Amino acid sequence: MANIIISPSKYVQGKEEMTNLGSYTTCYGQRSLILISESGMKRFKEVIEKSLEKDKVVPIFEIFHGESSKNEINRLVKIADNNNCDNVIGVGGGKILDTAKAVAYYKKCPVIIVPTIASTDAPCSALTVIYTDEGIFEEYLFLPQNPNLVLLDTQAIAKAPARLLISGMGDALSTYFEARACKLSGAISCAGGQSTVTAQGLAKLCYDTLLEFGYKAKVAMDQKVSSKAVENIIEANTLLSGIGFESGGLAAAHAIHNGFTVINECHHMYHGEKVAFGTIVQLVLEDAPELFEVIKFCKSVGLPTTLKELGIEKIDPEQIKKVAEVATVPNETIHNLPFKVSSDDVYAAILIADSLGQ
Hints:
Layout: E1 11-14, H1 21-25, E2 31-36, H2 38-54, E3 58-63, H3 70-82, E4 87-92, H4 94-107, E5 111-115, E6 127-131, E7 137-142, E8 149-153, H5 154-158, H6 162-185, H7 197-222, H8 228-248, H9 252-260, H10 271-286, H11 291-301, H12 317-327, H13 343-357
Parallel strand pairs: 1-8, 2-3, 2-4, 4-5, 5-8
Antiparallel strand pairs: 6-7
Helix pairs in contact: 3-4, 6-7, 6-8, 6-10, 7-8, 9-10, 9-12, 10-11, 10-13, 12-13
């Protein structure tokens, strides 16, 4: 089995880089379907229009309906067809970006990813997470290539709520531990091969960057200002975690996240917040030496370490068993751990993680 690493073709990160979007887009076409939220339209439409029109690119804006579902993807493919779009630009958070990637895949055209928050490691990946229209995890759509361009305007990201950057830290927190588990088990990563030394190194760098700069970045974001720590965490959340998870592999943390999507009380929680708790559960399963270090980090930046902090006020054993069952269905990434794991194991680990978090 080959060792494989994949990544976006180009990664650009800097202040006010959104003003240069048009100069990058001309390499990929002249009619752009721009997938964006209503709030994103208010914040970024003017700067995007000016940038694209300066380079004679026609923007076709379309409001995202909220879920990266099959129905939403199909709706947007039709709009792209009707407007003769030759590229897709996703502007916003993880589900918008995932949807943009899927639309471009079905259109067989380039995709440009413009995160306005650093809340997940979705931007760099050749992967779309498909949910139902109601927000319940359905499946992964593995794409044949990574985005053509990932462009981050760090000034725009720094103005977003601090909770979003912290959620991104939660997603990034799992990267090293899941990649390490996959290396030990010899699991096949999302890249279609076994992990490389480079991918493992980036995953470890991601974790080290979080520990060094995470709390300082949170403090800066709470004051709605940027700093070198914020810049470093944006890169860790996006690029290091993106390459690290995709070419390193997924294991228990993301599978446990998928399990928690079946609980209504958790639907208000961000992806990375649930992944952070899933990381703690994975470390319990592994009896890993970093367990208390990770719990301490989560508490320092405000990531959930208990079921109550995930929105579950009263623990229902049957509900938690359902989470464990969904997390351990055949072909889930939890089976990339270097040992067998059952739903009973996960049920116990969730309760232990909750108790330790308290």
